[in-house]
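Support request, please re-run this one:
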Amino acid sequence: MKIGYARVSTKDQNLDLQIEALEKAGCEKIYQEKISGATKNRPELESMIAHLRNGDEVYVWRLDRMGRSLKHIIDLVLDLSGKGIVIKGISDGVDTSTMSGRLFLNIMASLAEYERELIRERTNAGLQSARARGRTGGRPKGYTDKTISKLLVMRLVYKDPTKSPEDIYKPLGLTRATFYRYAKVLDNHTDNEIKKMAIKK
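Re-run finished. Output below.
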């Protein structure tokens, strides 16, 4: 069964574009929500998940419609895929039933692993770094956890001669320009150096 999920962040926004695309994709049922992505309680998403069965296909306008954070998206996609449910993103080209989709899942799993490692490292070193930033003042410079995770995952396939830039940046949800900017970072820094660039909160 083809099932759609559409979400916008506020009640003032319109779901029509997403719903139209989901209907064109052949969705038989569409769950709709006007709620912030940061909100933990999302009843329509939870209802959809509760009714999904092995072999179902879930369509979204873009993968970020499903999750409130990168980690939540990763965990949700991996969990649903493990239950035999296919995830398809209409505008970002995600399709977990294809070979490239399986590559995407592997990237997602690696991304989750890196995020957990980053959290552990931030917990161990965060207090000292926060004090240092407090002494120097000004806006902290560096990368968010999401950016660092994507940089580290991108390294896994960045040097593969069989992969084109599109093969790498599209599954990660990057633009071509961002891909080349990240490539420069990877060329000039080790993984440990990149991890230390995290903006500590």
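The CA atoms of residues 2 and 67 lie 19 Å apart. The chain has eight helices and four strands.
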